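From: lab user (bench 3)
To: helpdesk
Subject: output format question, protein + zinc ion

Hello, I'm new to running complex predictions and I'm not sure whether the block I got back is the full result or only part of it. Here's what I submitted:
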Amino acid sequence: MENKCMICGREATVRNIGADALLFKCSSCGEIAIAGRVQTALLKEPQEVLSKLSRLLAEHRLESNDKLFLVGGGEGRQKDFLLVDYKELLKHYPRDTAEILDRSLLNLSRMVSHPSHEIQITEDLKEVFFAENGMPYYTFAVSLQIGDS
Ligand SMILES: [Zn+2]
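Helpdesk reply: Thanks, we reran it on our side. This is the complete output you should expect:
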């Protein structure tokens, strides 16, 4: 089994959790289970859909302790998991630049425990800022003084 997250492509631990569902532990997407049918569907999706999902999952990891189980329909709970249809999840993608900025700043605030704490904005955090790559946000963060000077 390949040790890669099937959403963002990062190195991840992958484990079979029964039926044909896989559990991915990814540093960006968090801990997510994906049903077999959904794995098949995701493999057919264009890269853009996977990129959007990876950003939504990174946001979810920061805002909630709920582990997601991507299923082919329906919702609810199953043991530790919140069942989510990934197509429903995609509907929560930010609609415009203003919303991207709002949600990026909220994500940033979730990463700092105190306003004067420094945070390194790296390429690896690009999903948290809904970005294609980390550079625009790196520049943004460098010019943004986070602190109570
Ligand atoms: Zn991932």
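A quick orientation on your result: The chain has two domains: 12-90, 97-143. Let us know if anything else is unclear.
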